[in-house]
């Protein structure tokens, strides 16, 4: 009987004559030739249901489907389902076995991030799960991605300025041998913008868009974006106002009526300082100084 075969189908990407394909491989633990395999290929539709794209019967322990941009496109999640049977007795067949879903295209890892307004950098990897074909075999064989950020705000607020900053606006995916789920990868760091506003936790997203690739397969691809939750942290505030009243970070209050340029604040941890210029602003009975300029680094 063939019902107990462990076929364990697995989908992997590969280049076949310069064209991107996905390959379904399966290996029965105890092959009993002559055996045929029925391979059914399907993809997830936008409604989340599987739709059949290809079916074949083969004696080989693998099956290929090309990413042709119509039946199978970048951005699709593809499955293969394999059934084994003996030639001449198709009624004696194994139970159909499913592969795991394989996402073909560009994606971010991790797929979501939660970061805080603490100045720390978080590594975001953007990768292609399929090989990058090089039509002309020239030196500029790569996919350039334009990266952008967008603030999604909160459910009860309109979006505001971006809540996150990236270390690069463009990255290049350069082809290399496929390893694990990656055939090309680049890294970028994400930092939360410290905005000194008590605006709660906000949601942002990072998008990647291929920049005018030659291959039409990539031109039509819109990669999945990555959601970034920015956790609000309380920030320190200090003030110098009118004829200067000064309130320090720890709440200490005093007045300064001196004329000149002064160092108001300096960080020991990073290159950050604030200078203030105080000038005579016409006190009738005594010298009164007012803020008339400032410089921040």
TrEMBL record:
One of its GO terms (molecular function) is signaling receptor binding. Pfam families: Ig_VWDE. PROSITE patterns: VWFD. Keywords: Disulfide bond, Signal. One of its GO terms (cellular component) is extracellular region. Residues 236-297 form the VWFD domain. The keyword Nuclease does not apply. This is VWDE protein. It comes from Zosterops hypoxanthus. The gene is Vwde_2.
């Amino acid at each position: 009987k063939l019902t107990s075969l462990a076929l364990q189908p697995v989908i992997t990407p590969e280049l076949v004559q310069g064209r991107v394909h996905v390959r379904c491989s399966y290996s029965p633990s105890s092959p009993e030739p002559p055996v045929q395999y029925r391979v059914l290929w399907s993809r997830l539709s936008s409604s989340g249901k599987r739709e059949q794209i290809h079916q074949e019967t083969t004696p080989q322990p693998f099956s290929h489907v090309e990413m042709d941009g119509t039946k199978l496109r970048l951005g699709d999640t593809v499955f293969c389902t394999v059934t084994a049977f003996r030639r001449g007795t198709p009624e004696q067949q194994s139970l159909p076995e499913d592969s795991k879903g394989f996402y073909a295209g560009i994606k971010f890892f991790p797929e979501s991030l939660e970061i805080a307004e603490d100045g720390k950098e978080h590594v975001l990897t953007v990768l292609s799960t399929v090989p990058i074909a090089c039509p002309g075999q020239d030196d500029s064989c790569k996919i350039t991605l334009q990266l952008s950020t967008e603030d999604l705000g909160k459910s009860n607020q309109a979006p505001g300025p971006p809540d996150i900053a990236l270390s690069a606006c463009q990255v290049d995916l350069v082809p290399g041998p496929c390893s694990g789920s990656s055939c090309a990868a680049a890294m970028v760091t994400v930092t939360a913008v410290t905005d000194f506003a008590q605006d709660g936790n906000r949601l942002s997203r990072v998008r990647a868009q291929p920049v005018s690739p030659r291959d039409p397969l990539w031109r039509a691809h819109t990669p999945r974006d990555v959601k970034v939750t920015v956790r609000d942290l309380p920030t320190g505030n200090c003030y110098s106002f009118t004829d200067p009243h000064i309130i320090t970070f720890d709440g200490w209050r005093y007045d300064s009526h001196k004329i000149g340029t002064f160092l108001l604040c300096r960080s020991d941890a990073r290159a950050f300082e604030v200078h203030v210029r105080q000038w005579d602003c016409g006190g009738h009975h005594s010298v009164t100084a007012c803020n008339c300029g400032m410089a921040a680094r």
